[in-house]
User: What shape does this take?
Amino acid sequence: MTDGERDRLVAEMTLEEKLGLVRGHADPAGRATGALPGVERLGVPPLRLVDGPMGVRDGRATAFPATLALGASWDPALARRVGAALGAEARAKGHHVVLGPGLNVIRVPTCGRNFEYPSEDPRLTAAVAAASVAGIRSAGAAATAKHFVANNQERQRDGVSVVVDERTLRELYLPGFRAAVAAGAEAVMTAYNRVRGRWMSEHTELVEGVLREEWGFDGCVVSDWWGTHDTRAAVEGGLDLEMPGVSPLELYAPRSHLLRALVGLRPSERAGIDPPVLWRAYDALVGDEGQPDLYPAAYFGDRLRRAVASGAVAEAAVDRKVERVLGLYDALGLLDGAGKPSGGSAGESPTVDADAHHDLAREAAVRGTVLLDNDGLLPLSGAESLAVVGPNADAAKVGGGGSSAVTPARTVSPLAALRERASGVTFERGVARVAEPSLFDPPWAGTVRRLRGATTDADPDAAVAAAADADVAVVVVQDGATEGEDRDSLALPGDQDALVAAVAAANDRTVVVCRSSGPVRMPWLDDVAAVVATWYPGQADGAALADVLYGADPGGRLPVTFGRRFADYPVAGDRRYPGVDGHVHYDEGVFVGYRGFDRVGVDPLFPFGHGRSYAAFACGDASATPADDGWRLDVPVANDADRAGREVVQVYVSPPDGPVERPARTLGGFASVELAAGERERVSVSVPRRAFARYDSREGWTVDPGEYDLLVARSSRDVRERMSVTAE
Ligand code: BGC
Assistant: This one.
């Protein structure tokens, strides 16, 4: 549809119809996360939006590995395939817009949503996010880049104001969004937090200025759920679509007879109570700090109608928003029948090959697994007897809590998969189950979980005895992160560290499998034979784990730095995290993650980019040639082992001394390659000019002339080759 046709369509709409397109409504089927009713009279069909980054949150769906695992694969092509599968499942269930990818930079190592994001590095984040967007779109669904921007902690996420300088915003937190927009994301979701005092749902400077004017984004800006605060400010700030636009009662009513009856009875109306009064009371009673206030449900509802009537908001401003929402429709091919009362079609709903998607989830989980340490015990041969130990080893770690949680189509637990592969398996939980918290838990859920934990069948002595009797002990540990709150510390929850230590003391051949939302402390590291990090591996968890333990080369490299303690991270200190008096100060500037560790010379437990392979790689003399936009490196890589493996060639850029302090090295480019036994290949890595640049608040992106070192590396701390190039 041309712009002119879209304008004409808007011109035919009544104000009421337009208002219906700028705020969400309850999905009559109760399945979408957010929905628009459309305008039947004009052939604009209903639109359905659905969470989220790791699978479709509507009934049973494939639970793919965490976004962080995709980051750990360092393989955008894989992220694209997962995005395509996710998009296809969304479409098959009748949804149009996927509320993902999540692409906030991992600033705080304990942030509760880190598993939904790719990395602490902006370049890796951008590459994975752009590929996810491309994949989702290739399936005929629309992608939503979220959460724009600087939503880097869950603690007080709905109130905190981020104090961040322009350079830091540009160099670290914005590039992922820029890449997602360049990849064609049709929507961008504003974050709950404020930046420099302004709510992101009303941030004229960043939404109208950067997103739209600078980057040319013409898509739809949608609020996070109940993340709006003021009608006029949101209108002027560039928000197009308010979500969910209804109260939780109305949102969830279609799913429950009881709620439907309640909504139908309209008890508040009958009693003469304004619903917002009820919501305020609800927030006061059960609202928690990680959740937005649910009052009031809609700033783009009655309030917007009144603002237009009083002239406080021009109807033309509403028209502009409607045009953008229709642009989203149009991108999806939903306006083909528009203008005719018969209506646009909701599109064909393709069927999904559940087996193929399960296999993809398994492949992605293998590729995202990082072999952190291995004294030669792995891979196992299959002849060993195993003691499988761990509080939740008999369940797949499907994902984390909150809006990204998927009801998996099927699951494979570590225990079930290892039972199929090993010659004999015993299982002991060892310690009480780790709770799987959820944002949507009712207030009494914590008590229920504690009671369940107390009545668990865990027996540490039995776990130690089982480990002593087996050839190999596999201890599966995990955290339990969720949207809405941050982890308390880097330590594994409960008594898991003590369990690992006790098992390791009983059996030298102990493998630790760490399923976590980010870095964790490993006080037992020196006492175990091998450690693999599988993040939240999704529904194929156990199958992928068995693949790796029995010889599939794990392709992963760390997308985040594993520090020894929280105090070693550049965000340590209350001002920086969680913030003081409602303000979180990004005082570390551009020195987040490995950049911060390098700056102060602190050794991490495992550096960014680290990951072992079962194969053995050597890289020969690399060469750099100028390319259209930056440099291209040719890196000869040889797999000297007698087995296939994956190598991730990483290139870091080290700038010359210049007018401002810069990180000693930043990731400039990378390539993930699979090499057969004995194979050699010239791997090509592009390092764009932007990787040499810094952001200057007056000059914009600036490349200081001089000699830059390009470091060919196996991690941020394992440099294999260094060459110099001159930039001007
Ligand atoms: C989350 C979003 C999500 C939305 C809808 C919010 O709590 O921050 O990421 O898409 O809910 O479920």
Q: What stands out?
A: The CA atoms of residues 15 and 244 lie 20 Å apart. The radius of gyration is 26 Å. The pocket of beta-D-glucopyranose is lined by residues 33, 51-52, 99, 146, 224-225, 403 (CB under 6 Å). The domain at 615-727 is CATH 2.60.40.10 (Immunoglobulin-like).
